[in-house]
Amino acid sequence: xxxxxxxxxxxxxxxxxxxxxxxxxxxxxxxxxxxxxxxxxxxxxxxxxxxxxxxxxxxxxxxxxxxxxxxxxxxxxxxxxxxxxxxxxxxxxxxxxxxxxxxxxxxxxxxxxxxxxxxxxxxxxxxxxxxxxxxxxxxxxxxxxxxxxxxxxxxxxxxxxxxxxxxxxxxxxxxxxxxxxxxxxxxxxxxxxxxxxxxxxxxxxxxxxxxxxxxxxxxxxxxxxxxxxxxxxxxxxxxxxxxxxxxxxxxxxxxxxxxxxxxxxxxxxxxxxxxxxxxxxxxxxxxxxxxxxxxxxxxxxxxxxxxxxxxxxxxxxxxxxxxxxxxxxxxxxxxxxxxxxxxx
Length: 344
Ligand code: DOR
Ligand code: ZN
Description:
- The protein is of the alpha/beta class.
- The chain contains eleven helices and 13 strands.
- The strands form three sheets. An eight-stranded parallel beta sheet has the order 2-3-4-5-6-7-8-9. It has a three-stranded antiparallel beta sheet with strand order 1-10-13, with helices on one face.
- Strand 3 (35-38), helix 2 and strand 4 (70-76) form a beta-alpha-beta unit.
- The radius of gyration is 19 Å and the shape is globular.
- 48% of the residues are buried.
């Protein structure tokens, strides 16, 4: 197969930031994607429905002319989140999910949750109204090895949350481990997003032969066996797994610093990379499910009407970086030519 047409994809986990960065990176998503779940980890975070409405308006104002894009807003769960505000924002159609960051787990997560007893009422409300909880699934305890933080989270946090809230739809975001894949497959009402980059890199790519800051993200990429488990899950056709790029722009200045930021910027070339991954796994017929069908099904939203066509041919050229007023944002590189181009 050298050409494939699929329903227009959506990105079920995206960081757009704000201001000049938002304006610079949004076209990289709207070129190929119809919708995206917008992460709320701004400074300050998107906590209340009024914050989400204002942020949505800033995103809508930044959409390039000629593109159609629907930002699917989320609220950042804090121990002070008001369940009534969550309920109203959901009833209005303003938000499609609430995001749980364990406090300190990643970029701008200081306002996240430390004591889960304090968010019980919100989780109960969400289970009742069918609003999904998107979860950054890593424990933050300093005595837990960074490569074990996802697996430990499953036992210590996710499983207890799910047992306490049987009706709650959870989305384990940016899965990085076989343990996470196995857990999701053992559950009802559980979904998971998988990023493009975690299907390409393992931890050797970050560290062997010199440190590669542009491959550093959170959760950090794990051993090869985990990368293979993610590829198998994504390309299996299992409806619980869908695309969430976690495309996360940071300027080169912030990435290449002595304490560099976590995040891979994959919005630009994700669809070309995915076509290659699915082809390598003999699963091109499963690409549409992963990128365009399984996410809407899990969220209870319609699929997109229009399509994109991917064609295999000469190497496709993507920009090395996206210029922004704050400095360049480097686009994720796989290390080999991308042969699938995208026509929209
Ligand atoms: O690598 C990451 N970058 N992981 C996250 O969870 C957050 C994101 C960001 O906001 O930069
Ligand atoms: Zn993220």
